[in-house]
């Protein structure tokens, strides 16, 4: 067989354009394999849309890929328009040439052509690629506005000469999948502006995302616009809005919506009732949840695990899980992995690890494989109860089963060792985490910085903090507070206040923990007036002092022996509705002890008991010392 070179191919192209030999040329081109020499020769010559189209139709993808760098937006667009009736081939073509290399109009045209496929998945994938690249920088020069994207999609739609609005439906859905809800809403209003009727499915997509993002107020604004536009709600719409009301704690109104939807001829489904049950359960209103279950039964719906799991979760916190389990079993419901994880979490949080592990064993016996959540909950519970060896045995068990640790497990372990001051094991796990290809998170670094501060290794803590910032990871408030507390504890107040300035530069608002750290550091240096002034600044910045703030000042003044100011702070604390704690009384008693004010100390002890606060050893020691000092003073005056 003779080599099929470019001149030969060109002659055949001429015959095709002239209308002769079209069938034979097509047949020969599709049947003849392209050698590497042929491909090289072809890729070095100007390519027409006819040659490119023929190559696509004959599935000569190796040749198409070789041409990628030579393709122009105009050539790609012409080819795409010729593939409108073959969107599957258009998709294959687009996937071979890396669409991101081409200009925005070409990308939009490709998406428009591919949108003709029966499956929405390829279109949404292409849209995500394009939207991610065009909005890679919200403030950068290359960013593209929603208006630009929408207008370009309109032009692409016009090129296809179609009246379908499915392209814009996909655009809204894509924004929602990317959690870009404001952009989705903007696109929705542009559709209305152009006279395109938005589908209720798009509205539900936006409402659902607003609900998941807990933007309940925005949900109602959007829902009101839907009503004004006379977009008729369906069952899914009502379920979303019932969920929004439950999140807001407006359970009575949520029940009223159930009646409204039925009056409009929309029958509720089991999701409607389960949403209400969850709403009542999350607020601890179990009897209300049971009333909903009773109503759903009367309407012919059988409660399922999604009905009972929220009730089970709340009752676990109350230590009454057995009641719900009994009720579930009576109607034939067998707990699933979610149910068991709820039980295990509840027991672990209450410190009942024996029962937690019993549920794990029962779970396995029922043929349900424990999930990462199961193991992570148990490991966390063991660390909370200071059972480090048992946690290590469980980790060994997980590894022996061939289960690779995930980021949550690593973070639980690292935080657990950090809380117990074992920096060596914590950092070893960090290194293992990186080796396994799992990226450390803010939580990881906060735990590591905490343990370094706890061991007074402030130089290393600062270096790790700078490393985090240098990697482009924005530190959070908890991380900065941990580092600041370390510097305050070691007396480096200059560095602590420098961190406060850095927080302002990073646009972080300091919280009560931030100021409490700084006040404690100032009191430790005997700078009580500066600490008092800092409380004033705290109030001016809209941060409310808490009982820790006041106790810090009281403790500082008492150590100095300035009981007058200590009691003044206590009185201010009381006037704001803060009840004194054991720490408050012990701090005041230490000041009275230092000043040998035994009578006032005894009076304060009586007040403490009347407030229902049980004195501890430190309390009695301070009172005894105050009275002892008083007796010594009396003896000296007698002599």
UniProtKB/TrEMBL annotation:
PROSITE patterns according to UniProt: PPR
Pfam families for this protein: PPR (PF01535), PPR_1 (PF12854), PPR_2 (PF13041)
Organism field: Arabis alpina (Alpine rock-cress)
Origin superkingdom: Eukaryota
Repeat listed as a keyword: yes
Keywords of this entry: Repeat
Protein name: Pentacotripeptide-repeat region of PRORP domain-containing protein
PANTHER family noted in UniProt: PENTACOTRIPEPTIDE-REPEAT REGION OF PRORP DOMAIN-CONTAINING PROTEIN (PTHR47933:SF55), PENTATRICOPEPTIDE REPEAT-CONTAINING PROTEIN 1, MITOCHONDRIAL (PTHR47933)
Ranges for the PPR repeats: 164-198, 234-268, 269-303, 336-370, 371-405, 406-440, 441-475, 476-510, 511-545, 546-580, 581-615
Family membership: Belongs to the PPR family. P subfamily.
């Amino acid at each position: 067989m003779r080599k099929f070179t470019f001149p030969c191919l060109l002659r055949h192209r001429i015959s095709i354009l002239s209308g002769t030999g079209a069938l034979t040329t097509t047949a020969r081109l599709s049947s003849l394999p392209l050698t590497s020499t042929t491909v090289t020769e072809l890729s070095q010559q100007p390519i027409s849309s006819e040659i490119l189209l023929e190559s696509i139709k004959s599935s000569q993808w190796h040749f198409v890929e070789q041409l990628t760098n030579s393709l122009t937006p105009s050539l790609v667009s012409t080819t795409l328009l010729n593939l409108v009736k073959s969107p599957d081939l258009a998709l294959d073509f687009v996937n071979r040439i890396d669409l991101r290399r081409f200009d925005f109009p070409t990308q939009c045209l490709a998406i428009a052509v591919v949108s003709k496929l029966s499956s929405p998945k390829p279109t949404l994938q292409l849209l995500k690629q394009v939207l991610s690249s065009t909005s890679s920088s919200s403030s950068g020069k290359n960013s593209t506005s929603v208006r630009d994207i929408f207008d370009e999609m309109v032009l692409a739609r016009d090129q296809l000469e179609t009246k379908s609005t499915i392209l814009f439906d996909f655009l809204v859905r894509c924004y929602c999948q990317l959690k870009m809800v404001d952009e989705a809403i903007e696109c929705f209003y542009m559709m209305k502006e152009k006279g395109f009727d938005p589908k209720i499915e798009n509205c539900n997509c936006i409402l659902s995302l607003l609900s998941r993002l807990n933007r309940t107020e925005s949900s109602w604004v959007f829902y009101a616009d839907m009503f004004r536009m006379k977009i008729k709600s369906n069952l899914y719409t009502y379920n979303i809005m019932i969920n929004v009301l439950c999140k807001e704690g407006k359970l009575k109104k949520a029940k009223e919506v159930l009646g409204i939807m039925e009056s409009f001829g929309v029958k509720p489904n089991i999701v409607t009732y389960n949403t209400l049950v969850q709403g009542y359960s999350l607020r601890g209103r179990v009897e209300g949840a049971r009333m909903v279950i009773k109503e759903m039964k009367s309407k012919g719906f059988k409660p399922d695990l999604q009905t009972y799991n929220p009730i089970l979760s709340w009752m676990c916190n109350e230590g009454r899980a057995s009641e719900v389990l009994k009720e579930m079993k009576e109607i034939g419901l067998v707990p699933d992995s979610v149910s068991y994880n709820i039980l295990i979490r509840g027991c672990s949080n209450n410190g009942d690890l024996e029962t937690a592990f019993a549920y794990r064993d029962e779970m396995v016996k029922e043929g349900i494989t424990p999930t990462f959540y199961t193991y992570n909950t148990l490991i966390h519970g063991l660390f909370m109860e200071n059972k480090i060896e048992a946690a290590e045995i469980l980790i060994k068990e997980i590894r022996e089963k061939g289960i690779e640790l995930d980021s949550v497990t690593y973070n639980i372990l690292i935080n657990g060792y950090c809380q117990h001051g074992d920096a060596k094991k914590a950092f070893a796990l960090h290194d293992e985490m990186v080796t396994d290809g799992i990226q450390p998170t803010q939580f990881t670094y906060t735990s590591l910085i905490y343990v370094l501060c706890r061991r007074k290794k402030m130089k290393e803590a600062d270096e790790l903090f700078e490393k985090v910032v240098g990697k482009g990871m924005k530190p959070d408030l908890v991380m900065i507070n941990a580092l600041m507390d370390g510097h305050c504890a070691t007396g480096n107040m200059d560095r602590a206040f420098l961190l406060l300035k850095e927080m302002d530069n990073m646009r972080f608002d300091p919280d009560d923990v931030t100021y409490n750290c700084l006040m404690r550091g100032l009191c430790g240096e005997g700078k009580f007036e500066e600490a008092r002034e800092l409380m004033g600044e705290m109030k001016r910045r809209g941060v409310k002092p808490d009982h820790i703030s006041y106790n810090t000042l009281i403790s500082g003044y008492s150590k100095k022996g300035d009981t007058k100011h200590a009691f003044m702070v206590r009185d201010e604390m009381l006037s704001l509705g803060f009840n004194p704690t054991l720490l408050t009384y012990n701090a005041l008693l230490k000041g009275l002890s230092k000043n040998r004010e035994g009578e006032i100390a005894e009076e304060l002890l009586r007040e403490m008991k009347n407030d229902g606060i049980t004195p501890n050893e430190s309390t009695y020691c301070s009172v005894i010392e105050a009275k002892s000092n008083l007796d010594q003073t009396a003896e000296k005056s007698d002599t």
